[in-house]
Amino acid sequence: MSNDVKFPPKPKRTKLKIKLGITLAVLAALYTVALTTTGFEVRPSASSAWHTLQRIFIAPLFDADTRAAFPELVGYMLETIAIAYAGLSIAAILAIPVGFLAARNMTGNNLSYIGKGILNAIRAIPELIFAIIFVAAVGIGPYAGVLAISINSIGMLGKLYAEVIETIDMSKVEAIKASGGNRVQAMWYGVLPQVVPEFSSYAIYRFEIDVRASTVLGIVGAGGIGFPLLLATQQRNWEDVGMILYVVVIFVTIIDIVSGKIRNKLV
Amino acid sequence: MLEFKDVSLTYPNGHQGLKNINLKINDGEFVVVVGMSGAGKSTLIRSINRLVTPTSGELLIDDENILKYKENNLRKLRTKTGMIFQQHNLVKRMSVLRNTLSGRLGHMGTLRSLLGMFPQDDVNLAMSNLNRVGIGEKAYTRADQLSGGQQQRVSIARVLTQKPKVILADEPVASLDPPTAHKVMSDLKRISREDNLTTLVNLHFIDMAQEFADRIIGLRDGEVVFDGPVSEVSDKTFEEIYGRPIKEDDLLGGDED
């Protein structure tokens, strides 16, 4: 190989280096603030952490009384799943019109901003806050939980639906319009067949999230396994807490596996 | 009859798509529009069903100026002018028969169409049109499982199911291989003959234009630079239309069969 290979002059990367320096300085400052204000000192409690962990994760497996509570806890868990399912079913359907409204290629820029703004606002509020509001509005019980879950799911599904609609092939819509179809027909025959698999996939994925979210709703009185969880933690009854967590983990894992398989087939 | 009277179209960005077009196209004529990309072929064809709207002049179909049409009339106009696209624009996840039936949407009430309740007459019509283009046995197959040529045949069947008076075809064979392109064009020509449909086809392959057209219209930079029966067309005509010598690329070839 010869040594006289010609290279163009190397680009000067001063700007890039300055940017990198500033970024690192900002990150360092943020870390310093975060670490100095949070306080890491351990306040010793009556029982050691190790002892508590042992009571949560190991004791329930050998404690006959705790094991006897298993069927009842499964009942609570099924109620939790029912809340998630009901909330999601409502949301999966109501999110469709909202998604169309928020999709830029369906309604134009202005309406789309309004639709997306509403969806962003909904998503900024956590489920628990909605649950507290609905418990106050419709009373303690799973109904409040269903409403909280469905509102929040509309927030996320509406946004995801809108994004799916924005990526479709608009030429199909043009073809329906070119044959004399009206707007509604163009959406039904040109848009929906393209988006239904993605919509279903997102809805199922959201169901996984909703099951997890529903497990804590009982803490504010909105039904499900969160209620016994609240009691057990308040009484420092760690064996029961452990058993409840086992039930939650088992069911959530099963649901994640099954829904993952279904989603793989869909898209 | 289809008549362009001094039709011009200026796009919002200032580009002039069509410049003072004057044309008369008789019922049942098979017209091929040729020109380079960007010459205004698509714009010309899409003006006829108002997918684009010319900014001045008059466009008459059976002596009615369609440029004045609003929503309702526009739907009626579009049921009468069937369009075939380069990318056939079938809905991939629907069956071939259902795709063909979607040609009837313009004739149906919204509610009925949302429920998918197509009248039996329409279903029969769609099926017989699929048979006419030779893919009847694929009726229940999903559209995305067909080859490119078969999909373009479905889109011909869909347009026929509209029962149009005019067929507009925008580069219908540009994404097909030469032998398939030939068969699809032959189907289109045969059907337009059989049903006496006025047909406008955009093509950029000159040998194909000469083979199938009754009449050729040449466009350059939005202007009609040639208009005449195919018998008057020679390679020199195309050189004038394209504004440069004819090259190998301008020929499709592959019509040995």
Q: What portion of the residues of chain B fall into strands of 2 or more residues?
A: 15-25%
So how many helices of chain B? 9
Order of helices and strands of chain B: EEEHEEHEHHHHEHEHEEH
Overall structural class of chain A, as computed from helix and strand content, comes to mainly alpha
Protein architecture, described:
The complex is a heterodimer of chains A (267) and B (257). Chain A is an all-alpha fold and 267 residues long. Helix content of chain A is 81%, strand content 0%. Chain A has a single domain (67-266), classed as MetI-like fold. Chain A has helices at residues 14-38, 49-57, 59-62, 64-68, 70-102, 104-107, 109-124, 127-138, 142-166, 170-178, 183-217, 226-234, 238-266. Chain B has 257 residues and is an alpha/beta fold. Chain B has two domains: 26-39 and 69-84 and 166-250, Rossmann fold, CATH 3.40.50.300; 89-163, no CATH class. Helices cover 34% and strands 23% of the residues of chain B. Chain B has nine helices and ten strands. The chains are: A mainly alpha (267), B alpha/beta (257). The A-B interface holds A 171-172, 174-182, 184-185, 188-190, 193-194, 196-197 and B 49, 51, 75-79, 81-83, 85, 87, 89-94, 102-103, 105-108, 110, 113-114, 158-159, 162.
Please name the defining characteristics of this protein.
A: 267 residues; mainly alpha; MetI-like fold; 81% helix; extended; B: alpha/beta; Rossmann fold; 4-stranded antiparallel β-sheet; 9 helices; 10 strands; 34% helix; globular
